[in-house]
Structure to design on (581 residues):
């Protein structure tokens, strides 16, 4: 076999193994060293290529695809700094447990560390932010090396997908000639005898372990369930049934997906971020058992309140991590979450005492009633935007929400509903980078996708819009433009008047109509709420990118939030005097 056929046999086998393992989407960025992989990926009949020029955006786009598809997505770039631009999305994928197969092309060994162009040290370059790193062997066509290429690929997919899901990195040293023989690719793809099927299983508890936990939890008088980011849809039914059996309220983070759907809402508490700011409520509720599923919720008041509790605190984690930022866990339980809930329900008797649950439900309802007063706000307002979205989001839609204030306002104002609105965010590392691209990745797969994003976050990933212009995704983007970082006005830095604007507020004065024009998006800057409803609703019947800008003011935004929180406190006090104690 000549060098070209050897290259073709080895790379075609690897690429085919991706498809055999249901990796049908690969985000590719242009480059020369990656040519053999790029061409053979493009040529494979079961693989779809998504071209994305800027590797930082490309990797976030792949992250969005993987989130929406709930399975690994691969990405490919050339050697050099291209690979470093993948890093932020890899970090986000690692912490938010999203499976990615990162393929980087590299110079062969004789060209490393000798001043060759576009050559950097790519060995283990993502450190411990990937679950597995492999420096691939140079292409060879012996049977054992074809099996090696396929096996590494199958292991990479299984490792990425196995809980906790996350990114894996395969670095490919490639020597010239870099052009494979595409006419021969099909022949090499057919040689599937050298394959291995990997069947990762979920973590489960033994009968004895379950019995012990059921006994402890079943004795609790005042229990609580907390749900953060949950990826398994079956959890909606499973955890609400567990809550109902136990008579425990379920504090549901927006990313738990428990705030929207067809499941039972009788135990779902969605206003805790607001009422756990209130001293009266904080003092009134002291659980003796807490069960937590998924990542830690967004809410800071919840975290602060938890720190004051002395409860048996079970963290159930099918990914066997240690997600306990409050440092309070008394039990780490490594079991697939849905199965844990179902197994537990079978072992428990229904708790007939609903008193504790009803106290939570009552506070929640009083809080929600008071929060609804935001409906009277006439000016454009960041909180009211999410209140409006409650009403305006269509059935079976997808809401991607940016970090900083958008995710927090969503937490406060996006109440439970049965419209089946799926909520997405990048909460692994909470970056304001890559959000446009991640949302575009989601909108490639999901219909009726809306992104709500702050102006700085939007600016940070404007490059990502090119994918939308070229690929034609339908995405409605709501840019909350408060001309800078609104979140900092809520923090104590805000009192450093002299330096605040230059260091934290960072106003930019950008006119986003130009970016809309650059990327072929429709654009509207909203003047009032009636106009917002009209433009937002109409956006679903316009194809492509739609940018709707909502101008707000950072200073008045803080005041309005604070006024509302104190109004809610007074309302809760009036409504509940004596009742929740
Ligand atoms: C990549 C990255 N850089 C910096 C930060 C720190 N940071 C958190 S929020 C924020 C401001 C975000 O502003 P914007 O997107 O306009 O949202 P707003 O605060 O106005 O709601 C910054 C810079 C971050 N989280 N991620
Ligand atoms: Mg802002």
């Amino acid at each position: 076999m000549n060098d070209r056929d050897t290259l073709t046999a080895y790379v075609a086998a690897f690429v085919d193994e991706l498809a055999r393992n249901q990796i049908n989407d690969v985000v590719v960025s242009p480059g020369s060293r990656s040519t053999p992989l790029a061409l053979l990926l493009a040529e494979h009949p079961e693989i779809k290529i998504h071209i994305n020029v800027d590797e930082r955006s490309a990797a976030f786009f792949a992250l969005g695809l993987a989130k929406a598809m709930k399975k690994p997505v691969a990405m490919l770039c050339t050697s050099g700094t291209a690979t470093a631009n993948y890093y932020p999305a890899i970090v986000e994928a690692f912490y938010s447990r999203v499976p990615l197969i990162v393929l980087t092309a590299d110079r062969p060994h004789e060209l490393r560390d000798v001043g060759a162009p576009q050559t950097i040290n790519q060995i283990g370059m993502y450190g411990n932010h990937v679950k597995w790193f492999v420096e691939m062997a140079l292409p060879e066509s012996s049977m054992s090396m074809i099996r090696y290429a396929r096996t590494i690929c199958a292991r990479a997919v299984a490792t990425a997908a196995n809980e906790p899901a996350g990114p894996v990195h395969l670095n490919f040293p490639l020597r010239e000639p870099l052009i494979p023989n595409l006419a021969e690719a099909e022949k090499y793809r057919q040689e599937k005898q050298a394959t291995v099927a990997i069947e990762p299983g979920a973590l489960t508890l033994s009968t004895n372990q379950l019995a012990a936990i059921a006994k402890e939890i079943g004795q609790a008088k005042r229990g609580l369930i907390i749900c953060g980011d949950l990826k398994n849809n079956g959890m909606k039914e499973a955890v609400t049934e567990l809550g109902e059996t136990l008579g425990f309220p379920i504090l549901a983070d927006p990313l738990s997906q428990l705030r929207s759907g067809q499941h039972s809402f009788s135990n779902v508490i969605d206003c805790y971020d607001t009422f756990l700011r209130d001293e009266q409520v904080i003092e009134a509720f002291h659980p003796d058992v807490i069960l937590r599923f998924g990542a830690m919720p967004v809410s800071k008041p919840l975290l602060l309140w938890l720190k004051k509790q002395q409860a048996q605190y079970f963290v159930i984690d099918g990914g066997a991590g240690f997600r306990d930022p409050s440092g309070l866990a008394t039990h780490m339980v490594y079991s697939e979450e849905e199965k844990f809930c179902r197994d537990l329900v079978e072992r428990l008797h229904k708790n007939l005492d609903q008193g504790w649950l009803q106290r939570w439900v009552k506070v929640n309802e009083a809080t929600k009633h008071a929060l609804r007063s935001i409906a009277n706000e006439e000016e454009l307002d960041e909180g009211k935007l999410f209140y409006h979205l409650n009403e305006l989001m269509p059935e079976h839609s997808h809401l991607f929400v940016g970090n900083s204030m958008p995710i927090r306002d969503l937490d406060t104002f996006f109440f439970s509903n049965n419209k089946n609105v799926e909520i997405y965010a990048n909460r692994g590392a909470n970056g304001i980078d890559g959000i446009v691209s991640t949302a575009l990745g989601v909108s490639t797969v999901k219909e009726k996708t809306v992104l709500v994003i702050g102006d700085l976050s939007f600016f940070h990933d404007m490059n990502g819009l090119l994918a939308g212009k070229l690929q034609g995704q339908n995405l409605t983007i709501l840019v909350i433009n408060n001309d800078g970082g609104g979140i900092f006005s809520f923090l104590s830095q805000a009192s450093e008047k002299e330096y605040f604007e230059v260091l934290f507020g960072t106003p930019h004065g950008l006119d986003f109509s130009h970016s809309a024009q650059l990327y072929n998006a429709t654009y509207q800057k909203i003047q009032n709420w009636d106009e917002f409803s009209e433009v937002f609703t109409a956006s679903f019947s316009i194809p492509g990118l739609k940018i709707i800008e909502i101008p707000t003011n950072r200073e008045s935004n803080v005041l309005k939030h604070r006024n509302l929180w104190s109004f809610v406190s007074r309302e809760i006090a009036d409504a509940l005097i004596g009742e929740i104690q």
